[in-house]
Specification:
heterodimer, A: mainly beta, about 60% strand, B: mainly beta, 6-stranded mixed sheet, about 0% helix
């Protein structure tokens, strides 16, 4: 699956609890992205990274933080989960070696906040 | 604010027919327009993409038509097959290089019937 994994694949949590989702890519590509997918909204960019410790906000970043301490790992944290953050979360990477630069997506994490 | 509008939301086509999905964008700075295909339980995968310097791109049964003056682009699937049943997303970004931030349409659920 394009050399990218996400964990956990499913998670149920309660409002107010912290949640961390992990994205791991196996080929040390420079760029990584976190999206959320909701019915009627398509995919929306939450945060992205252009290198270790280099991150920037996307369209829907409120309530989310990210960290990238190693090239292969990109973590998404919900500091205090809310029901509005119930969604399917997708991580992606791109190689940055050509233009256009294709984004390759992971299998997704389904998060339910009760 | 939806910068990329996609229609229809769902589409049913008979096997062998032509599936057509339309997208319209607002930001004239967009210069990279990919289409992604997503099967249930999977992440999106790049299907075909176009730059605005060409009006059409064809790859097998899949064709993108691009109308820069109308700020519209569409995906045509010729000889549609049951295996094409999936959700299709159009997207756009300001540049197609590394770190490009994709803005997605809301998706079209295609069902190809026998």
């Amino acid at each position: 699956d394009a050399g990218i994994t996400q964990s956990p694949r499913h998670k149920v949590t309660e409002t107010g609890t912290p949640v961390t989702l992990r994205c791991h890519q196996t080929e040390n590509h420079r760029y990584m992205y976190w999206y959320r997918q909701d019915p009627g909204h398509g995919l929306r960019l939450i945060h992205y990274s252009y290198g270790v410790k280099d991150t920037d906000k996307g369209e829907v970043s409120d309530g989310y933080s990210v960290s990238r301490s190693k090239t292969e790992d990109f973590l998404l944290t919900l500091e205090s989960a809310t029901s509005s953050q119930t969604s399917v979360y997708f991580c992606a990477y791109s190689k940055g070696t050509s233009s256009p630069d294709t984004q390759y997506f992971g299998p997704g994490t389904r998060l339910t906040v009760l | 604010q939806q910068q990329v509008k996609q229609s229809p939301q769902s589409l049913i086509v008979q096997k062998g027919g032509i599936s057509i999905i339309n997208c319209a964008y607002e930001n004239t700075a967009f210069d990279y327009f990919p289409w992604y295909q997503q099967f249930p339980g999977k992440g999106p995968a790049l299907l075909i993409a176009i730059r605005p310097d060409v009006s059409e791109k064809k790859e097998g049964r899949f064709t993108i038509s691009f109308n820069k003056s109308a700020k519209q682009f569409s995906l045509h699937i010729m000889d549609s097959q049951p295996g094409d049943s999936a959700t299709y997303f159009c997207a756009a970004s300001i540049h197609g290089g590394g770190g490009n931030k994709l803005t997605f349409g809301t998706g079209t659920q295609l069902k190809v019937e026998l």
